[in-house]
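Batch manifest, entry 17 of 40.
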Amino acid sequence: MTANLEIRPASDDALAVLVSALGERHWFADRLARQERGGGLVLVAWLEGRPVGEVFLDCEPAKEPEVRRHLPGVPQLDHLEVPGPFQGRGIGTALIHAAEEAARQLGHERIALGVGVDNPKARRLYERLGYADWGQGTVVGTWVEYPDDGPPVTLSEVCDMLVKRL
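Output type: structure tokens
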């Protein structure tokens, strides 16, 4: 399955294709704008010309004060997503490795991510890939979602922060 997988940075001209396959128009538009100004990198996994997953390497200062304090300048993996039919085939792992390599090329020595405390399956994946708890307790992450049929909604999630030395 992953033999034909290609991972590359997203471009503005791919927005319509990304939204058609993965949804989240506002998220992609925002992350592409952040990528354009040097705040991160949108990496997309393509299989047979179709996007089958994405992750954002966030290089801007963390929103959470405790993360900024304990992990200053450390980029974070954000919004790793592989749609259901493509899960369990190594695509998420390939996206993580691509983001780690991009962080290395940017001169970073560590990378971090937040994983929901109620998502042990994802945590096991990250730990298998060398991520370890940061030892500073949980963090509450917040974000805004923009549903097609209503006003923006602010959501939050209690997360464990995991860090990996690159």
